[in-house]
Amino acid sequence: MKKKVYVAPSLLAADFRNLHNELLILQQNKVKYLHFDVMDGHFVPNLSFGIPILEALKPHYKFIYDVHLMVSNPEFIAPKFAEAGADIVTFHLEAMKTGNDVIKLIKELRLMGVKVGISVKPNTPVEDLAPILKDLDLVLVMSVEPGFGGQGFLRSALPKIEWLDEQRKKYRYQYVIEVDGGINAETGAQCVAAGVDILVAGSYLFGKEDIAERINGLRNG
Ligand code: DX5
Ligand code: ZN
Q: For residues 33 and 41, what is the distance between their CA atoms, to the nearest angstrom?
């Protein structure tokens, strides 16, 4: 049986003047995950949105809120996102000082009842995650430098996805694999073939007449 692939539209690319309709279109298309990019102007050279926006949306739009924290010192803010209604909280390996800090934050978030993900930037070897793979619900492979939507897909993400898929088969790990940046029909299919479960897509979906076909195209690899 073909495995199920999910699409997580990235809110960053939505038309904020028309946000209600943008989110309704996603719901009509049975989108489950909403990818919520948080940028702090320090870990990445851009700012986006934060907790008040999550709190405003969560009660009115049913999604799995997939929060991607592109922030320095995520140990301070990550628990606040868990409290505010995030379903998945993903932070960056590069933002953490020590392996012990990583494990501590994973445990703290778990206790709060959220799923926990870790993300790696394009230049970070995915093998750096080996010691903590068993503790993760999600691994997010960045296929662009984080900070901006609309960039081109970096093919270096593909062997990382393959490696993560091999590891979870070999050791029966439970995490799902997500990829983020430059996803379109072609790059999405390559990621699915490599073993990805969740495709984040921003500029490829929002503002497009044929968004329904695009979502289904991504799902069908
Ligand atoms: C980049 C963000 C992505 C971004 C993806 O820093 O993490 O989620 O919105 O946008 P596209 O799909 O346009 O590359
Ligand atoms: Zn993201």
A: 25
Q: Which helix (H) or strand (E) holds 36?
A: strand 33-39
| 169, containing H or E segment | helix 157-171
- For residue range 65-98, list pLDDT tens digits in order: 999 999 999 999 999 999 999 999 999 999 999 9
Report yes or no on 171 lying in a domain.
yes
Range of the domain at 126: 6-220
Q: Cα separations (Å) of 8 from 5, 125, 131, 205?
A: 10, 24, 27, 10
Is there a domain that residue 1 lies in?
no
Q: Name residues contacting ligand 1 (CB within 6 A).
A: 10, 12-13, 35, 37, 68, 144, 146-151, 180-183, 200-204
Per-residue pLDDT at 31 exceeds 90: yes
CATH, residue 144: 3.20.20.70
- Which position among 40, 66, 137, 180 bears the catalytic label? 180
**Count of domains observed in the chain:** 1
Say if 82 falls within a structural domain: yes
> pLDDT tens digits for 175-186?
999 999 999 999
**Entry pTM:** 0.98
The catalytic position among 37, 40, 137, 197 is 37
Q: Is 180 among the residues known to form the active site?
A: yes
206 assigned to some structural domain: yes
